[in-house]
Amino acid sequence: MSDLQYGVSIAMVAAGTFFMLVGSIGIIRLPDFFSRTHAAGKSDTLGIMLVLGGLAMYEGFTVNSAKLLIAIVLVALANPVGMHALAKAALRYGLKPWMPEGSGDNGAKQKGGGQ
C-alpha cells in the first residue's frame, strides 16, 4: 500500500467521522422532528459513505472492497428514502413542523398561493 493511498483513506475516515459527529449533534440540538430527520438524513449518510469509502480504499482492490462499495451504493439509496418515508409518515400522522415565534400560518399561505 502506498503512502498516498493510506493518507487518503485515513482522511476519508476522519471526514466521515466528523460528518457523523455533526449529524449526531444536530439530532440533539435541533428543535423538532423534521429538522432532526434532516440532520440524520444528510450528515449521517455522507459520513457513513465516507467511512466505508475510506475503508474500501485502505483495503485495496479486493473482494472486501467490492462489498464495501456495494454497501456504499445501498446506503446512498436506502438512507435518504427511509428518512423521507419517516418524515412523510410523521406529517401524515399530524406532526407539525416547528416555526419561529410570530411566523404563524401566514408565511405558508403567502408563499404557496394559498387555497
List its salient traits:
single chain; 115 residues; mainly alpha; 4 helices; 80% helix; disordered C terminus
Give a description of the structure.
- The N and C termini lie far apart (63 Å).
- The relative contact order is 0.13.
- It is built from 4 helices and no strands.
- It has helices spanning 3-29, 33-59, 63-93, 106-112.
- Helix content is 80%, strand content 0%.
- α1 runs antiparallel to α2 and α2 (33-59) runs antiparallel to α3.
- The chain is an all-alpha fold and 115 residues long.
- The chain has one domain (3-97).
- The radius of gyration is 19 Å and the shape is elongated.
Topology:
Blueprint: H1 3-29, H2 33-59, H3 63-93, H4 106-112
